[in-house]
TrEMBL record:
Database matches in Gene3D superfamilies: Glucose Permease (Domain IIA), LysM domain
Protein name: Peptidase, M23 family
Positions of the UniProt region annotated as Disordered: 235-258
GO molecular function ontology, one term from the record: metalloendopeptidase activity
N-terminal signal peptide: 1-25
Boundaries of every LysM domain copy: 254-298
PROSITE patterns: LYSM
Length: 299
């Protein structure tokens, strides 16, 4: 039998090359893996940014029937039985802690007061409570005076009344803490103050149920809006368990508001705790980037 040694030699070289390919391929994949992981992380961040931008351009679009620049709080919609409102990533609209008029019925005026009046002076900076999109910038002589209405992705609309000056325009996207106006005494007002309203699908909610102006904080991470349809009234609760009596009161978490330049190590050192405990309390990791104004629990 005749063998073609040249052909056999060539075939052996090909087989050896094929056998060596997986090893080279594995090396290539090993080198590529960190790059792929980084690219996936970049893609994830970019996707989150796109989703966030879309939510700000069309805030709570699944809840509200339309977008208009006319009516401050007029909606012909059926209220959901329950809706969870995210209060995280907030900013107090003013550093003032003095409430001059509470939410509720005013006997002297024989009408409901649908917001809180907070003492501010003419020219004081008023800021957006959450990120969102400005729906109305207008003037109402016998009511709000100069006012701004902002719709937020969490479903709330906030109203800021009696301003001396507008600092935003309609359909402008704003971030939490961004200046939107200056304190004033315009419209139906007897002294300089901020009239602050929180509404859900046009339904007024007492801002004090969500904002603690004295503590300059929110009352919790979330707020549960409940609609009592059988009585045609609106019921609100701070959390899903608040309607049930508890044998003992749960101590309120101690929180820190992140300042510019702070990280988890700085905050842990400040309160005598560890980064690991901060991560566990807040459901975050050591690599989480903190934002100025973010609320961090430390106890």
């Amino acid at each position: 039998m005749f063998f073609n040694f040249r052909r056999l030699k060539t075939g052996a070289v090909v087989v050896l090359a094929m056998l060596s390919m997986p090893v080279a391929g594995q090396d290539l994949l090993a080198r590529q893996a960190p790059i792929d992981k980084k690219m996936r992380a970049v893609d994830s961040v970019a996707l989150q940014r796109l989703i966030g931008d879309e939510q700000l351009e069309n805030p709570a679009f699944g809840l509200y029937p339309d977008w208009n620049n006319q009516y401050a709080h007029r909606y012909d919609v059926e209220l959901p039985e329950e809706y969870k409102i995210d209060l995280r990533h907030f900013c107090m609209p003013t550093p003032s802690t003095r409430i001059t008029s509470n939410y509720g019925y005013r006997a002297s005026f024989r009408r409901q007061h649908k917001g809180l009046d907070i003492k501010v002076y003419i020219g004081d900076t008023i800021r957006s409570a959450f990120s969102g999109k400005v729906r109305i910038v207008d003037y109402e002589r016998k009511g709000y005076g100069n006012y701004v209405v902002i719709r937020h992705p969490n479903g709330l609309e906030t109203i800021y009344g009696h301003l001396s000056k507008h600092l935003v325009r309609e359909n402008q996207v704003v971030k939490a803490g961004e200046p939107i106006g200056l304190g004033g005494n315009t419209g139906r007002s007897t002294g300089s103050h901020l009239h602050f309203e929180t509404r859900f699908l046009g339904q007024a909610i007492n801002p004090a149920e969500m904002f603690d102006f004295v503590a300059q904080d929110v009352t919790g991470d979330y707020y549960i809006f409940r609609s009592n349809k059988s009585k045609g009234q609106t019921e609100v609760a701070k959390n899903t368990a608040s309607a049930r009596p508890k044998p003992t009161a749960k101590p309120r978490s101690k929180v820190h508001r992140v300042k510019s330049g702070e990280n988890l190590s700085v905050i842990a050192s400040k309160y005598g705790t560890t980064v690991a405990k901060l991560c566990k309390l807040n459901g975050i990791s050591r690599k989480t980037m903190l934002r100025p104004g973010q609320i961090i629990k430390y106890s």
